[in-house]
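Severity: low
Component: inverse-folding endpoint
Summary: output formatting inconsistent between runs
Steps to reproduce: submit the following structure tokens with default settings.
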């Protein structure tokens, strides 16, 4: 509708990103639904690997920023190697924490892939076993020292905040996988909402392709080109700006 009246658009290739898991059979409003994966990938005894069996990011990082690494494109293979990816965790993790709606300590549901060995788990998820084993050994070697030289997991307060708060320091997010069986669940790049749309001025008036503003047309919230661009500014990073710009748009329209 905004395009019909000549609105300038912005941020159309972006969204509010978040890693998600689809649990087979879970539906909402008649559609296959997805679960946000935040705590599962942040808590200890777990890491994520791409389809090559390699880690590709700090698993405990900011979910919106993670959209960037999920959508990294390999121009040689013409594919997105990190999307979907796999969350790998051990039985200790499964015993201590809820995972994608499966309560801590419950038997793993059929859709969770599991094996007594990392090599066999790799076969089950079609990842090269030698590569997954090397990733596993390297992660464990450093995690048992409380370090992640590859992606700095645990160095930011954000990483440990979403981890296991009963653990001290970096251990809240970073601990080795030592207890079989090992599990894998498929994680995909998902979205909490759109954030592209009509561009506005500071009074939320929609900008025109011909210059100036479109009289009487305002935008705010997810429908506007996000004033923060690709960035999620922190907790409430979408609702905060949506309320602020909704308020400004209302005042602006009333003044007109
Ligand atoms: C699972 C989940 C968790 C989230 N967690 C957070 C969080 O912790 N913090 C945070 O800041 N953000 C979070 N978000 C994002 C946040 O909820 C949204 O960005 C925000 O609600 C968008 O607000 P809005 O008013 O722009 O849009 P909406 O809330 O989508 O409102 C748009 C409204 O317009 C109505 N509508 C649509 N079409 C029409 C029409 N033709 N006529 C009349 N009405 C219409 C819709 O029914 C809807 O009520 C989360 C989102 C999801 C999905």
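Observed output (run 2 of 3):
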């Amino acid at each position: 509708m905004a395009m019909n009246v000549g609105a300038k658009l912005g941020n159309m290739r972006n969204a509010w990103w978040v890693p998600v898991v689809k649990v087979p059979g879970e539906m909402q409003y008649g559609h296959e639904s997805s679960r946000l994966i935040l705590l599962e990938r942040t808590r200890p005894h777990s890491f994520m690997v791409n389809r090559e069996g390699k880690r590709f990011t700090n698993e405990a990082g900011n979910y919106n920023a993670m959209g960037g690494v999920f959508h990294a494109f390999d121009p040689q293979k013409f594919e997105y190697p990190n999307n979907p990816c796999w969350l790998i965790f051990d039985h200790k993790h499964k015993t201590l924490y809820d995972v994608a709606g499966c309560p801590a300590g419950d038997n793993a549901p059929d859709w969770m892939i599991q094996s007594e060995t990392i090599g066999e788990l790799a076969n089950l998820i079609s990842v090269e076993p030698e590569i997954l084993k090397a990733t596993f050994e390297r992660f464990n070697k450093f995690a048992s020292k409380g370090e992640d030289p590859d992606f700095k997991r645990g160095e930011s307060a954000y990483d440990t905040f979403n981890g296991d708060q009963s653990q001290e320091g970096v251990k809240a997010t970073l601990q080795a996988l030592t207890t079989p069986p090992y599990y894998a669940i498929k994680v995909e790049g998902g979205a909490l909402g759109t954030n592209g749309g009509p561009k506005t001025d500071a009074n939320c008036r929609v900008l025109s392709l011909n210059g100036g503003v479109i009289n009487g047309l305002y935008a705010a919230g997810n429908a506007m080109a996000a004033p923060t661009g690709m960035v999620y500014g922190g907790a409430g990073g979408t609702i905060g700006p949506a309320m602020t710009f909704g308020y400004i748009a209302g005042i602006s329209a009333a003044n007109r």
